[in-house]
Amino acid sequence: MNIESIHALSHLPALLRRRCRKTQTNRVFQKLNRPGVSKTQQAGFTLIEVLVALAVAAIALAALSRAMGLSVNQQSALEERVVASWVAQDELIKVQIMPGSRSEAEQRVEQFGREWQTRMMLEDTLVANVKKVVMEVQPEGANTPSASLVTVAGP
């Protein structure tokens, strides 16, 4: 083997790479130039595809918006129930500490910057001088109680 043949063999990989690139490029052009299909039909999405994609995105966003709205409503209802239970606990503690302090069954109480309607019901128990106390609390103007707690109170 002489130097010229070694030099010719060193260019062989570059020639093969060029030939492979040319073959790949020819295949791409053959796909694009199929009979009956123009180049504009193959470039990008059709109008129908875009409209379907937009409709799917709109439906998904509407569902997400609805879920977020329900989450906010549930959060405010949960907050109301928690605060109502605090108000009920506070009123029951007042009854236990000062047994004769509450003369009316229904009272309005202001706590946490809101008006609350409290209703206390006393029931006899099997133990003498011990009463079952049921405290229901609801926001002012509401029809159903947000919290209802039960305890016992005695002398």
Helix content: 40-55%
Q: Which CATH top level class of the domain at 68-153 fits?
A: Alpha Beta
- Gyration radius, rounded: 40 Å
Structure annotation, total helices: 4
Mean pLDDT: 79
Give the CA-based shape: rod-shaped
- The quaternary organization reads as single chain
Biggest sheet details: 4 strands, antiparallel
SSE pattern: HHHHEEEE
Sheet/helix structural class: alpha+beta
Under CATH, the topology of the domain at 68-153 is which? Pantoate--beta-alanine Ligase, Chain: A,domain 2
Strand order of the largest sheet: 1-2-3-4
What is the number of E strands?
4
In CATH terms, the superfamily of the domain at 68-153 is GSPII I/J protein-like
Low-confidence stretches: none
Strand composition percent: 15-25%
Structural summary, described in words:
The protein is α+β, with helices and mostly antiparallel strands. The protein has a domain at 68-153: Pantoate--beta-alanine Ligase, Chain: A,domain 2. It is 54% helix and 21% strand. Strands 1-2-3-4 form a four-stranded antiparallel sheet, with helices on one face.
Features:
alpha+beta; Pantoate--beta-alanine Ligase, Chain: A,domain 2; 4-stranded antiparallel β-sheet; 21% strand
Can you describe this structure in just a few lines?
With 155 residues, the chain is of the alpha+beta class. Helices cover 54% and strands 21% of the residues. The longest helix has 51 residues, at 47-97.
Topology:
Layout: H1 3-10, H2 12-32, H3 39-42, H4 47-97, E1 106-111, E2 114-124, E3 131-139, E4 147-153
